[in-house]
Amino acid sequence: MGKKKIAKQENSETILAEKTKVESAIVKTGSKSSNKKQIETGNAYIKASYNNTLISVTDEKGNLLAWSSSGSLGFSGPKKATPFAASKVVLALTEKLKKIGPTNLHIMVKGIGGGRDSAIRSFANQGFNILSIRDITPIPHNGPKPVKTRRV
Are 106 and 131 in contact (CB under 8 A)? Predict the structure, then answer.
């Protein structure tokens, strides 16, 4: 069946020394718990379409910190594009960003949905300092030729 294991009784000093070695190795490798730090400024991207409202928050380099959408909060159908749903999305994001999140935001808005303005107002009401607001909605600059009109 195999050899029997004989347990050796170790004193508490050697156990504590081994624990400190392991903890120092974890700190040197940069585990996630020691790597978190407070971020001052960030970017908030609001995509407000006719069907949904998506909001994502990144740091200055563009690394994603948190995101949320009205569909992920349980809104369905035409209720996803309402201003109320957009304000609830911002509330969910502030809960995610409490520990590491930025306090100063550059806001970029894309799309023409109903949640554009209420999302910006909700960011301001939650205590974020809004540094700038930019509209990055794509605009065609004389794209392809339109379809020929139908004659009956």
Answer: yes
pTM for this entry: 0.71
Q: Which CATH number does the domain housing residue 51 bear? A: 3.30.420.80
Residues 120 and 46: beta-carbon distance below 8 Å = yes
Place of tokens 């794209």: 143
pLDDT, tens digit, for every residue of 121-143?
Answer: 999 999 999 999 999 999 989 88
Structural domain including 96 reads 43-135
Specify if 141 maps to a domain: no
Question: Cβ contacts of residue 102 below 8 Å, gap of 6+?
Answer: 39, 40, 41, 42, 57, 59, 65, 128
Cross-strand partners of 64: 58
